[in-house]
Write a structure and sequence with these properties.
globular; two-stranded parallel ribbon; PLD-like_dom; 15-stranded mixed beta sheet; CLS_N; Endonuclease, Chain A
Length: 462
């Protein structure tokens, strides 16, 4: 009898404790002004699996870092330039302290994986003083082995080489770091961003460094969506390789990319870095505005700039993204844009290679189709590129996917381009994608549509 009473007491204590945890988490979400959709998703998970749901929230639900171990906010120095044309996006970014658009004398767009690889390797080979690489995925394969050989050679020649790798994105290499022994012995410094086990109090496993920043001699920059892996680029044709994009720039914007890399590097290594300014005057007609996003920014600057760009558009909004899971504000902005007569296009992979993403995105794509938005499903290899065209005035490139994870959780970097020539090149590339795409989502059964709509509940957590 006494055993039954003890079991009942323990049972009720666990129930009360679980309910208290849910209440405390709910208070935290209210205090943090989380959206109703996000709160609903998390509360539902905590009701269905009480203790596990709370644990998942503590691991995956926290966004802006709050403890004393958090990464310091990035403050990009204001580079005053004679910006050639006023743009609403440019102006709103400036109001948040983002550096002005800066001149670049050279800019190249690479949508061919072989040419992208050749440019990457030529930048390494031509480097005289420094090479700084930041990537989400560093896969140890035939392509990266050639890159490692080139970096070892440069390090032995006296070039400073630093590599920053996300520990979760490159978890295979993180657990087999013996593969980097020769690289490190040659003088190359390698750090893993938020090591999974070495930073128990600093590490938020949900907040990953998704930035791709490759800097050479403090003046040349390669950025975009390609990680260091044969899955993204290489010297030979590979039919299984993803379709992606990199861009190369040379000019004033190199310092802005450096400031982001230096901030991430200091957080991972506690080592300060200094930028060597180019004494030659910069000139050019390609203006770039570099925008970091993530937990090291006090506000959701990129998200607000994206909304501003959508509402400010007058002619077109063309979106290329591998993952399309927007929040309600963005989906409504796109619907309003279509009602205003703006040409809105979405180009995304036919298969995202993730069943949960496929189910969740379908509801949003059907909602856009209902108002006449053109949804094009790319039939080639997985489309991993990220780009948005706004009218004839600006484009957004970088590492940012069109989903909650990129816009609100991960460390990301976007680049707004203000150049007629570059915009024409991006438009040409997007039109090529459309040639290899099928129009619209296919008709599905009512139960399938209900399931897709239900998946919106978990969208804030993806």
């Amino acid at each position: 009898m006494s055993i039954d009473i003890s079991n009942n007491i323990v049972y009720y204590i666990l129930i009360i404790f679980g309910e208290l945890l849910i209440v405390l988490v709910f208070i935290h979400m209210v205090y943090k002004k989380r959206t109703p959709a996000s709160m609903t998703a998390w509360l539902l998970s905590m009701i269905l699996v009480p203790y596990i749901g709370v644990l998942l929230y503590l691991i995956f639900g926290l966004r802006k870092r709050e403890n004393r171990y958090k990464k310091k906010a990035i403050i990009l120095q204001k580079h005053t330039q004679s910006f050639y044309k006023q743009n609403p996006v440019h102006d709103i970014l400036r109001s948040y302290g983002i550096a002005d658009a800066s001149e670049n004398e050279k800019f190249e767009l690479f949508t061919d994986s072989i040419k992208a690889y050749e440019k990457f390797m030529s930048c390494i080979e031509d480097s005289k003083t420094s090479i700084y690489l930041s990537t989400y995925i560093f896969e140890y394969d035939d392509v990266s082995k050639e890159i490692i050989k080139a970096l070892i050679k440069k390090a032995k020649d006296g070039v400073k080489v630093k590599i920053l790798i996300d520990s979760l994105g490159s978890i295979g290499l993180y657990f087999s770091q013996y593969k980097l022994r020769e690289l490190r012995e040659s003088g190359v410094k390698v750090e893993f961003f938020m090591p999974i086990f070495q930073m128990p109090f600093r590490n938020y496993i949900n907040l990953r460094n998704h930035r791709k920043i490759y800097i050479f001699d403090d003046k040349k920059v390669i950025s975009g969506g390609m990680n260091i892996s044969s899955e993204y680029f290489g010297p030979n044709i590979d039919k299984a390789r993803w379709d992606d994009m990199l861009f190369f720039s040379e000019g004033t914007s190199a310092e802005l990319f450096f400031e982001i890399f230096a901030s991430d590097w200091f957080y991972a290594s506690q080592e300060n870095m200094s930028f060597v300014k180019n004494s030659a005057p910069n000139s050019g007609d390609t203006f770039l505005q570099v925008v970091p996003s993530g937990p090291d920014m006090s506000k959701d600057i990129l998200y607000e700039a994206l909304l501003c760009a959508i509402y400010s558009a007058k002619e077109r909004i063309w979106i290329v993204t591998p993952y399309f899971i927007p929040d309600n504000s963005i989906i409504q902005a796109l619907i309003i844009a279509k009602h205003k007569g703006i040409d809105v296009k979405l180009i995304t992979p036919k298969d995202s290679q993730n069943i949960i993403v496929n189910l969740t995105r379908s509801s949003y794509m059907r909602e856009l189709e209902e108002v006449g938005v053109e949804v094009a499903l790319y039939n080639g290899a997985l489309l991993h590129a990220k780009a948005i065209l706004f009218d004839e005035t600006s484009a957004m490139l970088g590492s940012v996917n069109f989903d909650n994870r990129s816009l609100f959780l991960n460390y990301e970097v976007a680049t707004f381009v203000y150049s007629v020539k570059v915009i024409e090149d991006i438009e040409f590339w997007m039109n090529k994608l459309l040639l290899y795409s099928s129009a619209g989502t296919k008709e599905v059964s009512v139960p399938r549509k209900i399931l897709e709509n239900l998946m919106r509940i978990i969208a804030p957590q993806l």
